[in-house]
Amino acid sequence: MAEAERLDALCALHSLPELAQAIHSEGGPDSAVPIQRHSVERLVGELSGLRSLLDGAGADLLEWILVRFQMENLKVLLRACVAKAPEPVWRESLVALPRHLDWNAPALAAAGSPAAFTSLLPRGSFRKRIEKAWGERGATPRLFFLEAALDRFYFEELLARVERLTGDGVAAVVAMVQQEADIFHLMLVARGRFDHGLPAEQLRSLHIPGTQLPRARFAAMLRDPDPPSAMRRALGRVLDELPRDRGAPQAASTPRSSDIEALAWNRFRRLANRAFRQGPVGVGAVFGYTGLRRLEAANLITVSEGLRLGLEPVPLRARLIPRGSLEVAHV
Question: What is the mean pLDDT of residues 145-154?
Fold first, then answer.
């Protein structure tokens, strides 16, 4: 797995073809977007293989994790519909998925409006959620809320499925799933409320029950006057520490959303690593490994993008998970 010293070595490469050779021994694409898509498709293939080895609640949970990739494809198509993007633009961002997770991509991308887009979806949960978002937000809801409604639906079902698990390591897997749902909550506050100034009452309606940030605490974070005040409420629940501007006194610091998110994913990695290593067999090992592989794929995408932009090794390495170069304020 690409982590630790191996990630250091990948960041020190000089070109995308070198990266392709290093991570795809069987050969593969050597430009940024195809490398990124190939990395995700390899992950999907591996998780699909793991899915075939499970049964019962474990199989159901891993199947829903695969649905996450289906949902991300749906977001790509929704954005293409809104922006009226030509097919070459959106096509390269789609990830190839098993047939049962596929969409009628050309029809959806070419829909004349989000309402027409919704009417083309197969009847089922995704369509219901987007229709519900239309009803709650009025005639022309922001794309942000349509996508957030999909995310909320995904995490609600993920939490429901993890609660049905039995066997060794279940508590560690529950902690991982709660953390990922709470990263969604954290970004609603950091990006939605403070970066984009979206109304707190609308964001509050996106809360997901059953996590480490209950509704009252989430609502209080949305009411807080600044990001540091809000993020302190997440300490020990979603964040192990707070980011702080280099050289700035803690009271004067305003952490960037990207740094907050990185520290939250650091915690997810810690939880996934704990789940994976606490026992050689059982659901903890399976889903801990799944979480670590997802982070590896995300890191490889970041490395490919950094090489495309010509970043030097040190600043590129600082963008990866675990994010080790952040100055933190321990509270």
Answer: 92
